[in-house]
Design goal:
Chain lengths: 482, 451
């Protein structure tokens, strides 16, 4: 059947089919299971080295936050590395008493930012005692000495994801500790870590012109939906967080049915028994989320301009639907055709021929679950004003959309997209991230393949039609550094 | 019980032997091949010794490396070449760094026979299209303009220029360097560098050896421009110690501390690996991370250790912190180095770091691609073949006395190059913390030795 299918299609599409088959063959080795408490688990044997990658994703992120507590998901991600009731402390009982007392002081000192003299002295005395009880970074060092690679985590608009790769012989050791830190993280060293996160914000946002622009750009593009809020949090919000906030937030979102776990590498379905033993013990429960408001339809172009903070940059973001809306794949292909390679018309016209920008790229962001943006990023060259560059961008886009996309460009875009998915197969943590996020975001472990199938079936008229409907000025926000 | 456990683990760690590559050679180019039935892609990389350390005109090697696979080939314009690649969903790329270059391709195994002729053309018949050359130059000029946008990139460039002064190591390109390059420079670079001398190819994927031989034969027969290569060791100039301050309007200061250290082939290499792990290359558990990040909350990113180089290595400590904390964070960093110089590391910490190095070693052989890329890079950098077995043998033998000795032998951060990029508060913070150290002030666009 598959062979016949391939013969009927053009030779060119056979390539994409070949990629699809290759991806499907790898993913077909996976075993999946939902534990009784609701945790989704995937086990995918891959490679020959005696190592495995574990990726645990929680469906919590920026969209679950409200002011003045932005940045709380990311802060909690940091705190998940501070250990448990048994790891990271020499005396948990005493530590608990001291941590509780810190919270009493924090509650009357504007989250430990404005102390009375007496509180300040007590705060420091408690910390002095805690320094003697704490075993700093015990959680990370036990994995480091076992040879971890890539122990890390990331937080975005919708997901908090924890990564590690370890030699297989430490599989059970990892499972026990991972389950424990997800269930029982201790908010130790919280007020030091809050300063670490503020330093992170200074690097990523405040001292980065592009980071600053992106923060302002999203605030303008989304008026109500929490996609507008920075994942790292506003500085004043980060400073308002307390360890108590962390515990409450953890309880609301870190429940097994809100999590997915992917194990890739030297693993078999028998390893599910170990997962069951440790992760099955986590109590079930319901997520207590905020209602996420719907973004109203945008009816006119918006703009945000920052002057003299760095070299010129232009972001042009068009509102669009998200997967599984049928227009989503058409728009992904439109983006790939328009700006995905050196053959793309926007690249050809603006970079190669007129040379008014040095680079152009596109992205679909800032999240994947809710209607988002297709954003084109342009870096104007010296001597060309942003307005001139923007006018040229509009002229080229208008020309291309008026003509409509051709079959050849679509075929190439499909192949490039399929090829990207093939590339993903060799990156075990990257693959684990995509699989767990699609499970939590869309409900299925196989959404990656469903999405790829849709890409391969999309016709050129769908792509042209979707691009004409969504890539319109009234639905866009332009962000600029001038 | 513990004894048995150790034996058992040892046995386990010994049981994995990464697959040895097959060596295939018909002419001068040696190919290392690992068959990977699971991988739908064929990936091939040609490694070529030589790089910007030996260039006469700054920037030429990097530009040549970038344009090789993007500047078209005989019979195909750059655009036609890229279209052909895209039609085959193949990636063909090239790049040259300081000591070696790579030219690579990847594609689905079924398309191998159609893609490798394109790759061979890149190696043997590039055209360096003049329009693409101009485009690449303009893009590079724009990138130079943009590197002043972030304090950390200013700090890195300043650090390289003051540490390596007027020698070729760590050189950052200026706009003037770029404007001086003409297309003939690229041709000269190409004929001088892209030769079969000591070239090495690595291939993974699901191919049979005959297909691979056919490819290799064609490459050998078309690649004729052999010219003997001379790669003498370039000299180094001694840096002038002190604090180099560059004023920018930022919320955070970027800091680098550096001095010369051991070269790549030095016998202290394995002892220094352990020292690195303890000091600041060992992740969250390392001392710099513990002291400056976890305990003091002064930085998000902080690291430090020795990076061995061709003739000299570099000791580096790097972090970013709010301007007013620069002095405090630097003091903590120095304290950690000085602690390593004055107190032997306790056995628990020493063992933990040795275990970490030995246990994570397996990830260097996680896939056939990582195994081969490592082997090829070692070959290019003239790392002896015995390195891996020596590593496994010698790292566990390092003692706390060795670490103490290494710290004293190689580290003296207070008399080294310290680069701080930040605002007035950063400057007053270092002035008050280090009243005795000389401070040289400069602006980025006329920064110290960078012309």
């Amino acid at each position: 059947m598959r062979i016949l299918f391939c013969v009927i299609l053009t030779a060119s599409l056979c390539f994409a089919e070949g990629s699809r088959e290759a991806v499907s063959k790898i993913l077909s080795r996976a075993t999946t299971k939902t534990l009784e408490n609701g945790l989704s688990v995937l086990v995918l044997p891959k490679g020959t080295a005696p190592v495995f990658a574990a990726v645990l994703t929680v469906r919590v992120g920026g969209v679950d936050e409200v002011r003045p507590k932005t940045g709380i998901s990311h802060m909690l991600e940091h705190m998940a590395f501070k250990g448990t009731k048994t790891l990271g402390t020499k005396d948990y009982e005493r530590e608990k008493i001291l941590l509780d007392e810190l919270e009493v002081i924090a509650s009357r000192s504007k989250a430990a930012t404005s102390f009375s003299k007496k509180d300040k002295e007590r705060w420091e005395a408690i910390h002095q005692e805690l320094q003697a009880i704490w075993v700093p970074d015990a959680f990370t060092t036990v994995f480091e000495e076992r040879g971890e690679a890539g122990l890390n985590a990331s937080t975005d608009k919708e997901f908090t994801t924890y990564y590690i790769k370890l030699p297989k012989r430490y599989f059970e050791f990892w499972a026990e500790l991972e389950a424990d830190r997800i269930l029982n993280p201790v908010m130790r060293q919280f007020y030091q870590e809050r300063e670490v996160v503020r330093e992170e914000r200074r690097t990523r946002t405040d001292d980065s012109p592009n980071g600053t622009l992106y923060e302002k750009f999203l605030l303008e593009a989304f008026k109500i939906h929490p996609y507008r809020l920075p994942v790292i949090g506003f500085d004043e919000d980060i400073l308002s967080l307390t360890a108590t906030d962390m515990e409450e937030f953890h309880e609301r979102f870190y429940v097994p049915k809100n999590m997915a776990l992917a194990l890739i590498g030297d693993v078999t379905k028998d390893d599910l028994n170990i997962i069951e033993r440790y992760f099955g013990a986590l109590p079930g429960g319901e997520v207590k989320a905020e209602i996420i408001p719907k973004e109203p339809l945008q009816i006119e172009e918006r703009s945000v301009v920052l002057n003299d903070i760095g070299s010129p940059v232009i972001y042009i973001g068009y509102k669009k639907v998200a997967y599984p809306h049928p227009d989503d794949v058409s728009l992904s292909l439109a983006g790939e055709i328009l700006a995905g390679s050196t053959l793309s018309p926007l690249y050809q016209e603006l970079v190669e021929k007129s040379g008014i920008v040095s680079s152009i790229s596109y992205s679909e962001a800032p999240g994947i679950i809710f209607p988002n943006l297709m954003t084109f990023a342009l870096t104007p060259k010296k001597g060309y004003s942003n307005q001139f560059v923007l006018d040229e961008f509009d002229r080229v886009l208008k020309d291309v959309l008026q003509r409509g996309f051709d079959e050849e460009a679509l075929t190439i875009a499909k192949r490039s997209t399929a090829r990207e998915i093939v590339n993903l197969m060799s990156d075990t943590t990257g693959l684990g991230r995509i699989l767990t996020q699609s499970k939590l975001g869309f409900g299925g472990w196989d959404d990656l393949l469903i999405w790829l199938d849709r890409v391969l079936k999309t016709e050129k008229n769908d792509v042209t039609d979707a691009a004409r409907r969504y890539l319109v000025k009234s639905g866009r926000t332009v962000g600029e550094i001038r | 019980m513990r004894y048995f456990l150790i034996i058992f683990l040892f046995a386990c760690s010994k049981s994995f032997v990464p697959e040895s590559p097959k060596v295939i050679q018909s002419g001068e180019v040696k190919v290392l091949y690992i068959q990977d039935e699971e991988n739908p892609l064929v990936q091939a990389t040609l490694y070529i010794p030589g790089g910007s350390l030996w260039e006469q005109k700054p920037g030429v090697t990097e530009l040549m490396g970038a344009l090789l696979a993007t500047g078209g080939v005989k019979g195909l314009s750059p655009q036609e070449f890229e279209r052909r690649q895209k039609e085959l969903a193949a990636d063909i790329s090239s790049a040259f760094g300081e000591e070696y270059g790579t030219i690579s391709f990847s594609c689905l195994a079924d398309d191998f026979k159609e893609v490798y002729p394109l790759f061979i053309s890149v190696v043997t018949n590039p055209t360096f299209d003049p329009d693409r050359f101009e485009l690449l130059k303009r893009q590079s000029l724009d990138a130079i303009r943009r590197r002043k946008d972030k304090p950390d990139s200013i700090a890195k460039i300043t650090f390289n220029s003051v540490l390596y002064k007027d020698s070729i190591y760590g050189r950052s390109l200026s706009s003037k360097d770029l404007e001086n390059i003409v297309i003939d420079d690229l041709w000269n670079s190409y004929t001088g560098l892209i030769s079969k001398d000591d070239a090495l190819m690595v291939v993974t994927g699901n191919l049979d050896t005959d297909e691979l031989r056919e490819f290799l034969d064609q490459l050998e027969s078309q690649w004729t421009n052999v010219k003997p290569k001379h790669l003498p060791i370039p000299p180094v100039s001694e840096p002038k110690d002190g604090i180099y301050f560059v004023q920018v309007d930022s919320k955070q200061a970027s800091v680098f501390v550096g001095e010369f250290s051991l070269p790549r082939g030095h016998e202290d290499r394995f002892k220094v690996e352990v020292l690195n792990s303890i000091l600041g290359f060992g992740g969250f558990g390392s001392r710099l991370m513990q002291s400056i990040r976890a305990k003091a909350g002064l930085a998000y990113s902080v690291y430090g250790g020795t990076i061995p180089g061709l003739t000299v290595g570099t000791n580096i400590i790097g972090f970013q912190t709010k301007n007013e904390s620069v002095g405090e964070a630097l003091k903590l960093a120095f304290m950690e180095v000085n602690r390593l110089k004055s107190e032997p590391v306790d056995q628990v910490e020493l063992k933990r770091n040795q275990d970490s190095l030995i246990n994570s070693f397996v990830f260097k052989f996680e896939t056939p691609e990582t195994t081969l890329a490592r082997k090829a890079a070692q070959n290019m950098l003239r790392v002896p073949e015995s390195f891996d077995s020596m590593y496994a043998k010698l790292v566990p033998q390092v003692t706390s006395e060795d670490v103490l000795e290494m710290a004293n032998k190689w580290w003296s951060p207070e008399s080294s190059v310290i680069v701080v990029v930040g605002n007035d508060s950063a400057l007053s913070s270092i002035r008050s913390t280090f009243p005795d150290l000389p401070i040289f002030e400069g602006r980025f666009d006329e920064v110290f030795y960078l012309k």
